[in-house]
């Protein structure tokens, strides 16, 4: 079994949907196709929920009707056979009646999540109708019947495997299945989701559950690049990545993959291919357990919106248990820490979620002087960097030259050097690293 995931831009127009169908037909054997919502839809659904949360039901209603019109047009050009067209319209009608009903209700988190789920429900049902029109037999696997998160908001993997296998066993001869990315049920049996960009995570969880031979993530770029192509001119796709390298890059800002999506594939040791629907013959990137011993630097990624917190205390000197007490505060407020550096009398760390920043700061003040700096960026340099390869850190620092660095983290793993800088230096830092450590033109 293979898992093939297609993102929103691959479904952005009826022509793109045709191309996706062709790609699927070319792939031999059994496969599960995971789809995102049509591009732009989830953002629009978010704006409907936002309007409702501001009690602006008129605005929510207007956005719903505008989106409804685009789906009418979409159906018309996708479904030319009249029976399929009728079916498509009925699907659209059903999901928009859910949205219109929401627009009459008061905002709640559950209402918001139900609104957000409509995008993937629409795209998968319209796609299956389109395949039917083209004479391709596909079975829709409703994600809400097998995808589930537990009360810690983590995927409930035994439940997912059991329920997905049960569903699949009803169709022993079936070759092609289609399912929704992103959406799931939570431990209260309410509709929920795997966070924005979560369809990649669905693909990987499905792959792990069915022990797939391969997971293909189809996007609109030819694989993971060595640097951010939106900021730096001369970037190139990386043919091979290890799971560890890919996980670091996805976590620290490479937008091509959802940050959690590598873990299930790595756990089940399933190769992940990043491929481009616009250039299906391009090699893309293959992610496996193998580490290329010859390689030095692999890629660099940047994560914005970082806050640095420094706690300085003479009580830290020669004391034990100090760090535990500091970390406990972050744990109590469910705020993950990304980077840490320490000296004898101070600890600096970074977070990317400022929801509880002011109370965290207040509680930290019991331990000493606290400094907070917002609007920072983590630059994450990934590669094969065992300690025996002398000089790699120097090369990075030389490239930085006169750019101020607030924190450096090296030695946490063999695969990563992280720098914390003020966000205003991000573009220059990425450009310089591209020049100095990847040998590219400016
Ligand atoms: N449609 C969802 C989003 O836009 C999930 C995904 O595309 O992966 O975030
Ligand atoms: Mg995505």
Please summarize the sheet with the most strands.
8 strands, mixed
The helix/strand order is EHEHHHHEHEEEHEEHHEEEHEEHEHEEH
At the fourth level of CATH, the homologous superfamily of the largest domain is Acetylglutamate kinase-like
> What is the helical fraction, as a range of percent?
25-40%
**Termini, distance in Å?**
44 Å
Broad shape: globular
Strand order of the largest sheet: 3-4-2-1-7-9-10-8
Give the number of domains. 2
In oligomeric terms, what are we looking at?
single chain
Number of helices: 13
Using brief descriptors, characterize the structure shown.
VC0802-like, eight-stranded mixed sheet, 13 helices, Carbamate kinase, alpha/beta, binds aspartic acid, globular, 442 residues, binds magnesium ion, 16 strands
Secondary structure topology:
Elements: E1 2-6, H1 14-26, E2 31-35, H2 41-53, H3 57-78, H4 82-104, H5 109-133, E3 139-141, H6 157-169, E4 176-180, E5 183-185, E6 191-193, H7 199-210, E7 214-219, E8 240-242, H8 243-251, H9 262-267, E9 272-276, E10 285-288, E11 297-312, H10 322-332, E12 337-342, E13 346-351, H11 357-364, E14 369-383, H12 392-400, E15 407-410, E16 416-422, H13 426-436
Parallel strand pairs: 1-2, 1-7, 2-4, 3-4, 7-9, 8-10
Antiparallel strand pairs: 5-6, 9-10, 11-13, 11-14, 12-13, 14-16, 15-16
Bound molecules: aspartic acid (ASP) and magnesium ion.
């Amino acid at each position: 079994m293979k898992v093939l995931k297609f993102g929103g831009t691959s479904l952005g127009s009826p022509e793109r949907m045709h191309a996706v169908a062709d790609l699927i037909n070319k792939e031999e054997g059994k496969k599960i196709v995971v789809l995102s919502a049509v591009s732009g839809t989830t953002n629009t659904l978010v704006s409907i929920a936002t309007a409702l949360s501001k009690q602006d039901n008129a605005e929510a209603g207007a956005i719903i009707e505008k989106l409804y019109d685009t789906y009418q047009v979409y159906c018309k050009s996708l479904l030319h056979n009249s029976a399929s067209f009728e079916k498509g319209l009925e699907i659209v009608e059903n999901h928009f009646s859910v949205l219109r009903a929401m627009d009459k209700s008061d905002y709640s988190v559950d209402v918001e999540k139900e609104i957000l789920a409509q995008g993937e429900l629409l795209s998968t049902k319209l796609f299956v109708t389109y395949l039917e029109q083209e004479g391709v037999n596909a079975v829709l696997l409703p994600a809400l019947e097998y995808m589930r998160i537990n009360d810690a908001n983590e995927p409930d993997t035994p439940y997912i495997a059991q329920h997905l296998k049960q569903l699949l066993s009803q169709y022993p001869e079936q070759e092609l299945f289609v399912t929704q990315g992103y959406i799931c049920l939570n431990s209260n049996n309410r509709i929920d989701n795997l966070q924005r960009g979560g369809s990649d995570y669905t693909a990987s969880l499905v792959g792990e559950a069915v022990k797939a031979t391969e997971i293909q993530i189809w996007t609109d770029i030819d694989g993971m690049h060595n640097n951010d192509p939106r900021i730096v001119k001369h970037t190139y796709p990386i043919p091979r990545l290890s799971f560890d390298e890919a996980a670091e890059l996805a976590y620290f800002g490479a937008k091509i993959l959802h940050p959690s999506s590598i873990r299930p594939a790595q756990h089940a040791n399933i190769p992940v291919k990043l491929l481009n629907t616009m250039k299906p013959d391009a090699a893309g990137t293959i992610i496996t357990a193998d580490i290329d011993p010859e390689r030095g630097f692999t890629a660099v990624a940047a994560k914005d919106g970082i806050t640095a917190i420094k706690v300085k205390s003479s009580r830290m000197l020669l004391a034990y248990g100090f760090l535990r007490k500091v970390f406990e505060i972050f744990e109590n407020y469910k705020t993950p820490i990304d980077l840490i550096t320490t000296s004898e009398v101070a600890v600096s760390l970074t977070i990317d979620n400022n929801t509880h920043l002011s109370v965290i700061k207040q509680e930290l003040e019991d331990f000493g002087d606290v400094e907070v700096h917002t609007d920072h960026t983590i630059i994450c340099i990934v590669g094969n960097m065992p300690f025996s390869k002398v000089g790699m850190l120097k090369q990075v620092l030389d490239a930085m030259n006169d750019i101020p660095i607030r924190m450096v983290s090296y030695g946490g793993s063999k695969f990563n050097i992280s720098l914390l800088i003020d966000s205003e230096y991000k573009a220059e830092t990425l450009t310089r690293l591209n020049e100095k450590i990847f040998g590219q033109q400016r």
